[in-house]
Structure formats: C-alpha cells, structure tokens
C-alpha cells in the first residue's frame, strides 16, 4: 500500500468499480452505506452483468473486461472479487493503470504470483489492499487483546482446528475443487487462518510441513457442469451425509482433509487442521503462552473466549471468560471493518491494520504446505520477501508489534 490518497472535496463521493459479480459483490453495500458510489461493474457473463444492475442500480456502467475500466473517468478504486486464479493478472493490470485495488483474499494462488503483484504495487505507486477480513473479526481482535494484555504470558504455540461443515457445497461443486484454479484449500480456505496465526503469534512462517489427501469427495462419481449457476442454487443443509453428495465439479483434485505445521520466525510453533466433511462449521483456536492458554468456543457473537492461567486438572470453566462481541453473523462485522478501513485510507491516507505483506505470507505458507503434502510431507523453507519492498508496502500500515515484546526486531504481522 502506498502513501498517496485522494481527498475528495466536500460532497464528492468516492467512485468505485467492482470486478466479478458473484457472492461477494454484496460487500459493496458496506461502501455505499458510507456515501461511496458504485459507478462501474465488470463481469464476463450476461448473468453477472444483470446481477450488477439489480445490486447497484440501472445507472452503473457495465463492462465485460477489467481492461475497459481504464475508460471510466474519475474512478477512485476497484474491488476485485473474481475467482482466485484471476486475482494476480487482474490486480496487476489495474495497479499499472493507476487504479487502487481492494482485492478479495487470497492475494494469489502461488507465492510467485503474490510477489509479482506486490512488486506491481510498488512499481506503479498504486494502493493495494487485500481483504483479509477475518483478521478484523471480533473473535480475533478479542484474542489479540487478551494476548497483548499479558493474560497468558509470552505466546509459544498456536493451534487451529477448522471444521468446514459446508465444505461439500462450498468447495467441491464448482471451480474451487480444481487445483489449477485454487492450488489448494490449504491456501484458498486456510489463508484466513494462517493470517490469524501470524497475527496472534506475532511472526511469519519460515518453515512448513503439510499432510493431507482427497479422502472422501474423490470417491463420488456424480459430477455436474454448473456453468451459469451460483452456490445458492445448490446449497442445502439437507445435503447430508457427505458421501451422499451429488453434482460435484467435473474436476475434483484438491484435498478435503489437510493439515500443516509451521515454525514462525520468532520461534513460535503452530498447527492448522482442515476437514471438509464435518457436521459442524466453525473454527477453534488454542493459543498457549508461558503463563496460560486461551481458546474460543464459537467464532462469532454469542461465543466465548476462555482463559486458563492457574493450575488445574480438567476445568470446563475458564479462570476468566470473555463474550465474543459483534452485531452480525458470519463475516459481516469484519467485512464492514475492512471496507471502511480501505475507503478511509483512500479518503485521508489513514494507516490500515491490513498489510499486503501479511497477505503474502499467508499465501506463501499455504502454497508451500500444499507443495509439501504432495511431495511426501517434506519440510520447505518460506522465501523471505525483499526487505525494501516490505518497507515500502508497510509505510502506511499500523505498526503491529509482537505480543512477545522482548524478542528481536523482525517483520511483524
């Protein structure tokens, strides 16, 4: 992200474009709620362009290709909400055209593409913001606050279990199931959690091992071409048990059960486990420090974060318990926060809590974990990002020093 910004005169609303009119296009309503205007929409399909008119009104200009946005006068930013394998190319083109970008996570589907995208942000001098919304979710902010207050001492380990109960409908009936378009769900789906692990632990992954396989959905022969459909067309809570799933994507070669272990650059050790055929759908984090541990039960409002910091046998009740705040279900609170943060940066140059450097390391760990699990679970080293590029990109991000304050200087998420 660069330090330039646009200061609109009083009454002048930011003019936005959206590229990709799918499920995530709804987040633009969080922008228009602040007075911004969606003036252009891009989608290669007639169905997508028709949906843009329904979402944003009849005055929105419609285009089939993101290259056509260069013809839109006074465009302040573009939201890139397209399928993962298109992220890097579209974003690089827009950055080089001088159009600031809010890019849906993940930054890219490989560490190489991620680094190319960050290099384009620097060479063009154009703002890049990656929508790692879960970093700003109430449960994550609460856990980070408890760590920073010293309630569990110095962080030494972070464990995350991700029960993806809707995995069959969400990831195995469309392009997500094709590794050419996602690389791996250890990158696509796990990029949220890898970023959160980095944020809670105060470091970036440096060595990673992956393990996993396609253990359930690969055995289902019923496949379907869902061109023109959206996830809402086939999703149902009645699609159970998982082996009774029908209409899977013609190509299914991503793993449905996977895990990684990662050592961070500050010595913290972390693990992540992901399963796409569980009956329940939520994330569970455990953070262990030198003076206690914390764990979330539920990951949205109504849940609780429990802290144990005295000696116990088994204790269902924590020594302290903190309700998870929030006004909405799912990611809505975090979506609102990221969209508003991006727009405020455009308007005033205010620093952001989201860093493209952190987004890159989430991709890097996921990419290397996928390579590891597909090659005998060999350990792989995460390549460091060029130090000059890091300094440039983090000029306008809020300093996020590690909860482990006494450890040496390094790049903090």
Oligomer: single chain
Please identify which CATH superfamily of one domain we are dealing with.
Dihydrodipicolinate Reductase, domain 2
Strand content: 15-25%
CATH topology of one domain: Dihydrodipicolinate Reductase, domain 2
Distance between the termini: 14 Å
CATH architecture of one domain: 2-Layer Sandwich
- What strand order characterises the main sheet? 14-13-12-11-7-10-9-8-15
Q: Give me the secondary-structure category.
A: alpha/beta
Rounded to the nearest angstrom, the radius of gyration is: 21 Å
The portion of residues assigned to helices is 25-40%
Give the averaged pLDDT, no decimals. Answer: 93
Supply the CATH class of one domain: Alpha Beta
InterPro entries: Gfo/Idh/MocA-like_OxRdtase_C, Gfo/Idh/MocA-like_OxRdtase_N, Gfo/Idh/MocA_oxidoreduct, NAD(P)-bd_dom_sf
Protein name: Gfo/Idh/MocA family oxidoreductase
Family: Belongs to the Gfo/Idh/MocA family.
């Amino acid at each position: 992200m660069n330090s330039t910004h646009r200061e609109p005169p009083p009454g002048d609303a930011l003019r936005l474009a959206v590229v990709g009119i799918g499920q995530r296009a709804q987040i633009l309503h969080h922008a228009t709620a602040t007075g911004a205007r969606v003036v252009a929409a891009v989608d290669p399909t007639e169905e997508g362009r028709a949906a843009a008119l329904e979402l944003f009104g009849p005055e929105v200009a419609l285009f089939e290709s993101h290259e056509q946005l260069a013809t839109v006068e006074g465009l302040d930013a573009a939201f890139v909400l397209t399928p993962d394998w298109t992220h890097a190319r579209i974003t690089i083109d827009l950055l080089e055209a001088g159009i600031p970008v809010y890019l849906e996570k993940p930054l890219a589907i490989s560490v190489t593409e991620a680094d190319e995208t960050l290099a384009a942000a620097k060479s063009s001098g154009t703002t890049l913001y990656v929508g790692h919304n879960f970093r700003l979710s109430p449960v994550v902010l609460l856990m980070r606050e408890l760590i920073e207050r010293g309630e569990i001492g110095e962080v030494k380990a972070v464990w995350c279990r991700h029960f993806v109960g809707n995995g069959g409908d969400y990831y195995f009936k469309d392009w997500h199931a094709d590794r050419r378009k996602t690389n791996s769900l250890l990158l696509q789906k796990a990029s949220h959690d890898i970023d959160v692990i980095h944020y809670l632990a105060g470091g970036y992954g440096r060595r990673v091992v992956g393990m996993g396989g396609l253990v359930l959905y690969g055995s289902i022969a019923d496949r379907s071409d869902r061109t023109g459909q959206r996830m809402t067309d086939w999703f149902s809570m009645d699609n159970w048990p998982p082996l009774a799933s029908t209409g899977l994507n013609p190509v299914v070669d991503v793993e449905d059960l996977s895990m990684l272990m990662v050592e961070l650059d500050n010595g913290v050790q972390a693990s992540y486990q992901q399963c796409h055929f569980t009956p329940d759908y939520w994330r569970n984090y455990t953070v262990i420090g030198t003076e206690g541990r914390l764990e979330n039960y539920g990951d949205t409002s109504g849940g609780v974060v429990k802290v144990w910091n005295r000696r116990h046998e088994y204790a269902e009740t924590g020594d302290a318990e903190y309700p998870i705040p929030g006004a909405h279900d799912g990611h809505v609170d975090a979506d609102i926060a990221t969209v508003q943060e991006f727009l405020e940066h455009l308007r005033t140059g205010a620093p952001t809590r989201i860093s493209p450097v952190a987004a890159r390391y989430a991709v890097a760990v996921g990419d290397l974990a996928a390579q590891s699990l597909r090659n005998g679970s060999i350990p792989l080293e995460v390549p460091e990002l060029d130090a000059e590029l890091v300094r440039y990109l983090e000029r306008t991000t809020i300093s996020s020093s590690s909860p482990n304050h006494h450890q040496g200087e390094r790049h903090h998420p």
